[in-house]
Amino acid sequence: MEDLHLLLNHVQQCTQFTIDTESERSDGQLALIQIQTIPSQLPSLLILIELQHLPSDNPPAYVKIKIFFTLVFRSGNQLYSWGDMGKELEPIQDYHLVNWPATALLIDIQPYFSDWYEWALAHCESCRPNHNHHCDGINYDNVTTQNYSSSKNVCHEPSPYRSREKWSLQKALIYAAHMFIDKSSTVNNWAAGLTSNNSTLSFGRRKKMINYAIYDCFSTTYFIRPVLEYWTFNKLKNANIVELFTSFKSLPLPTINSSNTKTNKKIKKNIDPQQLFNINDDDLQPISDDDEIYLHQLIEPVTNEPPGNEKTPKDKQELTGQLLVNDAELISDEDDELIIDHNPTLPPVAVVDKAPPTKTRRKTHQQRSKGSRHRRNQKRNNTHRTRRYQYYLTRSMYYKFTMPSIKKILKQHHINYVHIKEADGILIIGVKNALIQQQYQNRIPEDIFDRKHYQIYQHHHQHHYQNHHQHNHQHHHE
Fold first, then answer.
1. Residue 440 lies in a domain
2. Considering 109, 132, 148, which residue would you say is the last residue of a domain?
């Protein structure tokens, strides 16, 4: 009860929130509501409300939960979301927690993302350092893809969607921030209980679902100000947690650009999505494990204390730091260019047996400046990075498993992966295409990397080592 009292005091001081929902897989009914507070001063709180497990047998607690909903949905508040919460929250009226429709303002930022992304591509300070950007003089009505097409962006990939098509939150993170959120828990048994001791779900699965529910809400909060205030990519990249997760002065919502919808409609029909990436599935290659950033790296524990020197486990160090580009990356001979030597001082015309100027070939990487190679390699890496999460599987992972042992086990099961990565106890296994993804989904057991299998693996490994050692010892004495 004391925790509920502190929560109500905190919520009463807030006027801005992020909200999301999850539905039960079996019947599609609303099962979970995630609400994140956007306070004037950190910490920010994220509350998970399991509608199927409300304390109906505890009237005082139930009354405080109703007060909580009343404070969140009160008039004058702003509730941000990725998707239409007006429709998703309609079933809440069956629980008599709040009067519906709510008097609070529901703001869906998803429709605004497309125009912002095209604008940010055209105003990238890294690609166009001489571009004059005026934060206070943005003309929202002049945001068109034509602005971008005249000068290609090497830091971020062009939109994979058609004009006016809504982005998924996962792709928005990958393209705009080069971060990844695992959406494999979206369709799940959300009504089974995430914290109850009587839950039919395993601890590992519940942990995975809770992490997803938290990061899904955090991701929406992460995009609110950049999308609605038209931040550049550099500003988003350099933003700190205070700017992203504390309250802000609300501005009028930008106008959704529709000037080129009709003219682009016919053109868009003939566009091959593969051409937007200039890459085919067959071109995918294994990528090293040291160039990825996960959402939980950016979103640090929400406190007002300055960040200290935290020790990072050895097996986590590869997840941290900035994206590094290898300036010494070789460029294929297919990119070679012909350089014709036009010498202004020609020999006398009388010399007819003089050999004509010859064509000399120089490798492109010999001509490119260091900055040009950096931009080229960065664009290549970003292209791979945006495609690598298109097909993947996830499995719960016991923390004592090492990457070498995981790779060995996958090899024993004849799993040809593109990359593997661990995040918050979840193993992400990237594969080449949808067909392989479907085949491996049934081939890889759900519990293959749990604690029990770790102990079996360790026992087998030690037994094999002892036998090998004894054999060598006997052979030595013979």
1. yes
2. 109
Q: Is residue 427 part of a domain?
A: yes
For residue 155, how many other CB atoms are within 10 A of its CB? 18
Dist. CA 203–CA 206, nearest whole Å: 5
Show the domain range for 53.
2-109
Beta carbons of 19 and 81 less than 8 angstroms apart: yes
Higher pLDDT, 7 or 200: 7
CATH number of the domain at 71, please.
3.30.420.10
Q: How confident is the model at residue 223 (pLDDT cuts 50, 70, 90)?
A: very high
CATH code, domain with 433: 3.30.70
Q: Which domain-ending residue is among 109, 138, 160? A: 109
Residues 230, 255: Cα–Cα separation, whole Å: 12
Element (H, E) at 171: helix 169-177
Range list of H helices, 230-351: 233-238, 241-245, 261-268, 273-277, 295-298
Q: What is the pLDDT of residue 376?
A: 76
Confidence of residue 116 (pLDDT cuts 50, 70, 90): very high
Question: 396 with 208: CB under 8 angstroms?
Answer: yes
| Residue 25 CB coordination number (10 Å) | 15
Span 85-101, pLDDT tens digits: 999 999 998 888 888 88
Q: What is the mean pLDDT of the chain?
A: 75
**pLDDT at residue 239 in the model:** 96
pLDDT higher than 80, residue 103: yes
Please compute, for residue 445, the number of CA atoms within 13 A of its CA located in the half-sphere on the CB side. 8
Q: How far apart are CA 210 and CA 451, in angstroms?
A: 20
Judge whether 129 lies within some domain.
Answer: no
Closest CA to 376 of 152, 177, 120: 152
The encoded tokens of residue 142 equal: 């002049």
Report yes or no: 163 and 268 within 8 Å, Cβ to Cβ: yes
Instruction: Answer yes or no: is 171 within a domain.
Output: no
Residue among 67, 70, 89, 12 at smallest CA distance from 45: 12
For the chain, the domain total comes to: 2
> Is the CA virtual torsion 5, 9, 10, 12 positive or negative?
positive
